[in-house]
Design goal:
The protein is mostly helical. The protein contains 13 helices and two strands, in the order ββααααααααααααα. The chain has a two-stranded antiparallel ribbon. The longest helix is centred in the C-terminal third of the chain and has 17 residues. The structure holds iron/sulfur cluster (2 copies).
């Protein structure tokens, strides 16, 4: 057995880490109820049926294990992270909260729900079965239902699917352009270092993106999945 300090957060001494990053991210999602109108005189009541499915996420003990092992946070401090996003779900899905739409708008931005790579680490390490990744996927669905389906996350997903359906593989050169838009210079420029590194290591994708041999089979596969989705 290996005993070591938590990941992502800076070590102060031995096993003690500075948890500022963890708590800053939790605070970032406004983890409190924001109901509409005047405060009621008695407690806010919600039907049991609406609250039962929140029991799982409410059992989070803020241990930080999911944050410690998140593979995206390890590389990108801007990501809100699994614990804070699970907490965000807890309030966005609460029937008493009136700010669900604005919460979802904020979470759809860079660093939010679309930055998770679905690696499953947070689900595996969580001692309370909160399943943060599943909450993040549920937040994505909710964001789309609320009309936030043109943000960079859904656009990235669409561009990805479009490329594979067309050529059988990913057109990595055009993916950022389709994701961020051709006139979004700041976002495109932020990808420049990645492009430069790829160029220096001889891994720059080809300018002319050609279909793979047997692309017809890939197209058939994509079509049959889409047909199946329409039937459901
Ligand atoms: S599934 Fe997403 S949130 Fe969970 S550890 Fe992986 S990247 Fe992080
Ligand atoms: S690992 Fe589970 S219990 Fe711990 S902070 Fe993350 S979601 Fe909460």
């Amino acid at each position: 057995m290996t005993v070591e300090p938590m990941g992502v957060m800076p070590v102060i001494k031995d096993l003690v880490v500075d948890q500022t990053l963890f708590w800053d991210k939790v605070r970032q999602v406004s983890p409190w109820l924001q109901p509409e109108g005047e405060e009621p005189e008695a407690e806010y009541l919600a039907p049991n049926s609406d609250m039962t499915h929140l029991a799982g996420v409410m059992s989070c003990i803020m241990c930080g294990a999911c944050v410690s092992d998140c593979t995206v946070l390890e590389m990108d401090e801007n990501f809100i992270g699994p614990a804070a996003l699970a907490k965000a779900y807890r309030f966005a899905a609460d029937p008493r909260d009136a700010e669900d739409s604005s919460r979802l708008a904020e979470l759809s931005e860079y660093g939010g729900i679309w930055d998770c790579t679905r690696c499953y680490e947070c689900v595996e390490v969580c001692p309370k079965d909160v399943a943060p990744m599943d909450r993040i996927m549920a937040l994505r669905d909710r964001a789309m239902e609320h009309g936030y389906d043109k943000t960079y996350g859904p656009r990235h997903t669409d561009a990805f699917e479009e490329s594979v359906a067309h050529s059988g593989w990913l057109d990595e050169l055009r993916l950022p352009i389709k994701t961020f838009g051709i006139f979004n210079f700041p976002a495109l420029m932020s990808m420049a270092p990645v492009g430069l590194r790829a160029f220096l290591r001889g891994k720059l994708p080809p300018i002319f993106h050609r279909p793979v041999p047997g692309v017809k089979k890939v197209r058939q596969l994509v079509k049959s999945v889409k047909d199946q989705q329409q039937e459901e």
